[in-house]
Amino acid sequence: MQCNKVKVDLSGxxxxxxxxxxxxxxxxxxxxxxxxxxxxxxKIVVVSNAKxxxxxxxxxKQSFESKDFEVDxxxxxxxxxxxxxxxxxxxxxxxxxxKIKRTDAIVxxxxxxxxxxxxxxxAIFQRGIAFLQIPTTFLSMIDSSVGGxxxxxxxxxxxxxxxxxxxxxxxxxxGVLQTLPRRELVAGFCEAVKQAAIANEKLFDLTAExxxxxxxxxxxxxxxxxxxxxxxxxxxxxxxxxxxxxxxxDEREDTARNDSKSRKILNFxxxxxxxxxxxxxxxxxxxxxxxxxxxxFAAELSKKLELFDNNKLNLLNGVVQDIGQLPDTHNIxxxxxxxxxxxxxxxxxxxxxxxxxxxxxxxxxxxxxxIPPVLIRETLKQILHE
Length: 386
Description:
Blueprint: E1 4-9, E2 16-22, H1 29-36, E3 43-49, H2 50-66, E4 70-76, H3 85-97, E5 105-110, H4 112-124, E6 130-135, H5 138-144, E7 149-154, E8 157-164, E9 169-173, H6 182-199, H7 201-213, H8 226-249, H9 270-279, H10 287-304, H11 310-323, H12 334-340, E10 347-348, E11 351-359, E12 362-367, H13 373-385
Parallel strand pairs: 2-9, 3-4, 3-5, 5-6, 6-9
Antiparallel strand pairs: 1-2, 7-8, 10-11, 11-12
Helix pairs in contact: 1-2, 3-4, 5-6, 5-8, 6-7, 6-10, 6-11, 7-8, 9-10, 9-12, 10-11, 10-13
């Protein structure tokens, strides 16, 4: 079976793993897991949600069992509001009840919420057990399944409680995207545009061309052609390779680094996104949709600071528009959004660090002390209320 493979080789660490990208890969999930895990691995706990597992769970479970894994399944709620410490406690209790050992493994089978929660549970259960990622949303395929960040949301902010815990492998079956709702596709491609904007013109052009050629609302119908599947796999592989390279050189997001290869640049668009999610109690936006607004905001702010050319701004805005409609924001309180910036995890010392753009592929980290608050408020109003 032909697959794209991206290796994540972490600098200064003996841990490395492979990301496998292809079509109809769930059927060989057991064989893949055997290659990723220790020969002593006997049990697998699949963490998923009812919708994903109902669609594809039996295929995956049977594949694991065919390679002599004992499989248990734990389902959590669907949505960002379930990414919390209560869910982690329930997963940990389940692992204890099933007598999971350090030689066993957890498999995250779902989107970013599943991956973050299952990954965090695997990081702290018995001080760390093996963890496999099988992402089923476009966003989790290109972003959250790669890099080892795990965690949960709390009342005081998004992703402020968590751990770095790298998976032993990532399996991406593009076929599951056929059943992905349009909003999830929009959310995922917002994240793809975010990565492309900070990566390089080649990835930006590849992503923009894909969006021009294939309307997300009709994505399912394109799966009948091998050419589309190949282009989709190649786009995902290119997106993953970019993130893997960033993670390789800055695995734990060194707070002292402010260069253009720092892992911090992956937070482009996320300062506003996290604030929007928090003030709406994680119920109004898909994460990627909030990132879509974050991209528009950060790019406009970059232009106002005379960092970013207006022609490039229009180009970037046009690609975001090609993704599709984002949720309405006219009723969101701008003061609440502004005040939530101080709780962002990108605060270093007393200053929030904004990820802005000097050009496509040229991100710049700027401390908030160099940005007039009135300019931030003005840009918020322009992006969210006009």
